Amino acid sequence: MFRPITSAAASVFLERQAKEIGLQFRQWTGVPGKPVTIMTLPGEDPSLPSLCLNSHVDVVPVDEDHWDYPPFSATKVDGKIYARGTQDMKCVGMQYLEALRVLKERGIKLKRTIHLTFVPDEEIGGHDGMEIFVKDPLFKELNIGCALDEGLASESDKFTVFYGERVAWWVTIQSEGPPGHGSRFVKDTATIKLNKVINRFLEFRRQQEAILEGDPTKKLGDVTTVNLTILRGGVQCNVIPSEAECSFDIRLPPTVNLEEFQKQIDEWTKEEVSTAAAWMIWDVRVKLNSRSPCHSLPATLVASRYCHVANSMFFATPRYIRATGVPAIGFSPMNNTPVLLHDHNEFLHEDIYLRGIDIYCEILPALANDTVAK
Question: What is the pTM of this model?
Answer without folding.
Answer: 0.73
